[in-house]
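Sat 14:20. Reprocessing the chain from the morning session after the first attempt stalled halfway. Input below, unchanged.
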Amino acid sequence: MSAGQAAGEAAGAAAPSALPRVLSALFYGTCSFLIVLVNKALLSAYSFPSPMFLGIGQMTATILILYVSKLNKIVHFPDFDKSIPVKLFPLPLIYVGNHISGLSSTSKLSLPMFTVLRKFTIPLTLLLEIIILGKRYPLSIIVSVFAIILGAFIAAGSDLSFNLEGYTFVLLNDIFTAANGVYTKQKINPKELGKYGVLFYNACFMVVPTVIISFSTGDFQQATHFQHWTNFLFVFQFLLSCLLGFLLMYSTVLCSHYNSALTTTVVGAIKNISIAYIGMLIGGDYIFSVLNFIGLNICMAGGLRYSFLTLRGNSKPTQPGDEENTLPESKS
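Finished this time. Tokens:
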């Protein structure tokens, strides 16, 4: 009798945990989808010359939103002390590299090709989770991941608009994104900085160096003299990008908190494939080929297979003393 009650209570306790996992993944996918479209409009349609300046705007929005929220006791994170830089390292460096390489790569490639090359973030995340976090994944998950990569290879092999600079930026972005996801998962312990502390201090530590680099390279001057600052629609989209930059960073941390860094990366991949399909219809910069289309479909199949396995619970990585087992207790 008591054993049955205990089993029922355990099942009831486990059931709610699925909802935040799914909702956090959907929130991240939506934010990531929207910011790519807005950034593409700013950097390509308006030919805004400064992806670094746009990154500064997104960091500034993050600092202001979180600082005001802390003052009004909406969120909580520790006050600054000398231990915080040590706790965060190397996240700030990875963070700014991810920002700049991501914004630069968006403007250099067609939207569908950009989404294909971003798939290489997935095996990098898988590898880093194994090395840094000590996680182990079942064969079914590894097969799903490499199905996505196979599709990316097939699709990229037929690219008729090869751009070496664009490919370099997007592959750097893959490395930074993988490292950012894995180290974020490691650093968001609620007993230390927590989700909001990681976001706030990351932005604080990197906004000033990024402004200095922007000034020294002439990037800042190009941005301030841009001709469309009097265009209401452009300014609205710039501010929207800054807000979405904060929401994307927050949703990434939230998704990594409730899921794994690998799941966050695969959600991003599924979102990118969806953008590729939209780009075929309305983007105007997609060059159709049979191989590219087949590759995209293989990517989507692998991503959906991974999602199915995750929802069934087969993807939960094994790790000695895995922090996932303590998340519901440590979250207040």
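The two ends are 31 Å apart (CA to CA).
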